[in-house]
Amino acid sequence: MIRNYFKIAWRNLTKRKVFTAINVFGLSMGFASSILIYLFISHHLSFDNFHKDSDNIYRITTEEHIGQTHYITSAPPGFAKVFREEFAYADKVAKTARERNLIIDIPKNNSTTKFKQDISFVEEDFFKIFNFPLLDGSHSISLSDPNTAVITEQKALDLFGKKDVVGETFVLENDKTIKITGVLKDFPETTFFDGDIFVAFKNLKDFSNWTASETWGGITSSLQCFIKLNPNQDMSAIENALLELPKKYRPNYKNKHVYQLQPLSDMHFNPVYGGLNPAFLIIFGIIGLFLIGIASINFINISSAQAFYRSKEIGVRKVLGSLKQQLFWQFLVETLLISFIASCLGFLVTAFTLPSFNTLFDLELTLNSLLDIKFITFFIALLVSVSLLAGSYPGILIARIVPVLALKGKLNHNDTGGAFTRKVLVVTQFSISIILIVATIVISKQITFAVDGDLGFEKESIVMLGIPPHENPEMLNTLKNRLKNIPGVQQVSNCFGSPGAAQNNWGSIIRYNNRPEYEEFSNTIKAGDADYLKLFNIPLVSGRSFFKDDKTTEVMVNEMFVERLGDTSVEEVLGKTLELHEHKMTIVGVFKNFHNQKFTTEIAPAIVTPNQEWYREIAVKLNYTNTKEVLTQVSNVWTDTFSNYIFDYHFLDERVAEQYETEQRYLSLSKLFSGLAILIGCMGIYGLILFFVNQRLKEIGIRKILGSNVRNILALFSVGFIKLILIAGLIAIPITWYVMEQWLQGYAYRTNIEWWYFLIAIAFTLILALITISYQTVKVAISNPVKVLKTE
């Protein structure tokens, strides 16, 4: 019986090749999208689940309350020692600090090769908390002695050309000789930690004495503290105990700290602390269901329409003794066969598109994940669900056909049922398409608004050059003057971070005008010389910039700083004092606000001070011609000044755009899925039009003989679909508006949802639908009616 089902199913599918192709194409795109989305979601859900006792591993985070709440993935440098000595909650406690762009020298054949490298300084217990084994599989990693390090196997190959590098040495920052004591297996991609060179924490004081200290006076996100708790601990009791630490070790600070335990499983999915927003995974899952749903709607619409076409077949089968359940299962087998063929094509599409998908999201997903029992279970469930969803309703319609009416040819579309349901499904299908189109437009507009909008500073043709730490200020001034003499260089400024550089932000509280208390708001500190505002084209509102020979006696503030002070003006703050880290300075100027972070964050009070000890970069503004040649000269001058370091640069506009890299990626995917939804929907309309036109060929022939033209015939078939798409648009408008308004709430500075976004989406959908309808309708309308009517 089952064999007979499949034989008849194959015969029916090959008999109606066009309808079969439409269904197979739609379902294969839906399956391919679902597979890619499954790989993406399962990849993110597997982060750091391979560590032993991962449920007991936590990171210490800080809520800093000063005017508003700041969420920091760290604690003061002194926290780890106190937690280790004063509490018995933890089995292991370890700090790790990241120092970026350090220089390492690798000795090779009586010479050295230099590399610029991020270095992780870790306490010994770090590798007892986390399961990052050595290449030999053991966990006996020792970093208790200074000047020792472990590196990953891939980094060993990159630096030394071999994996067996135990005992080898490298020189760190032209000073410290570090001995490699172990080689780690390469970390899996699904881990929060992306380091590959780990140096003993005791060496950190040579590069950042403050970070290596035991102070409670400040906090930096480059330093993190991890703990592995003893089993069966009460989290609320621990966090309540931590509330006493700021009172004991930070009693006089205005910025109040609240220390919390962040579970390891939360680190990848907490957007407050820089993790992925779980909403993205939910949205991806919904989009996958949308695409499968649209393809299934196509199948239901076309199949239910064909119920009328197959009525005589069903009538004969019933007369010969077929039962309703047999007819139902016959149709369900046809659906299963189509779904199986579509799933095979879906796998091929996945294999073909996976490299591009990996490139888009900077991932390393492989098809090996499809051999996992979880995926096999997921895919079987998806295949069965789609077959039941797409096949059940048409199967029921076919099974209930009355054989007498079918054999007499007296059935109409109402007798086979499904006409109203088809309309509802078409409306649903195009509502989804319009929602996706409008969402794509809104996301695109917001990203464009953020990247290309008025940030309050100039970012074009500005190159940021890194400079070695602790360099002589006179050397920096000499370098600046040499760079200014290069033809094509317009302006140069020494600074600590450019405007809009979220990675170079430094926050601090200040004391204003000798007030007894520190101000209850945090400030963004931007060290810069007298040319800072001029180079970035940041206008002054009042006062002046620094003089050329300023040290730390003067400071400029932004408009938001003045606003946060309260009852004062941009003129009244001039000449007032400001105390920052024991430096007492006079406010000489107020500059316009600029966006220093993403548009998700409100503009913060900002301070620019000419403290040369804080400079970490040189900003160079170029003219618009011969950029490559000018950069070569800049590189030569920089290298001549810092011969023991590696020249590195970044264009400021690219640095700003990188902050929206995640949004750009999701925008690209939104465009792709929106296009697929429209394409699948239009193919479904094409299938329905093809069926209805074939059913009404003789009617069209008679209409032409009676004087109807192509336009009349086109209107005959298109008016109904136009009405359905307009209804879909009316349904989509409130849904899309609400969803995108919620999304835009995450931006402190945002674009607006304009009415014409919906008009474009509905018009675009209508045009594509009309093109689809016209292709088949016009072809029939211009044909010779005699050929259609000659058998009458």
Automatic annotation (TrEMBL):
One of its GO terms (molecular function) is transmembrane transporter activity. Residues 20-243, 432-629 form the MacB-like periplasmic core domain. Signal peptide: none annotated. It is found in: Cell membrane. Keywords: Cell membrane, Membrane, Transmembrane, Transmembrane helix. The chain crosses the membrane at residues 21-41, 279-302, 327-355, 375-403, 424-443, 672-693, 713-735, 755-775. This is FtsX-like permease family protein. One of its GO terms (cellular component) is plasma membrane. The keyword Magnesium does not apply. Residues 286-402, 672-784 form the ABC3 transporter permease C-terminal domain. It is a multi-pass membrane protein. InterPro entries: ABC3_permease_C, MacB_PCD, Macrolide_Exporter_MacB.
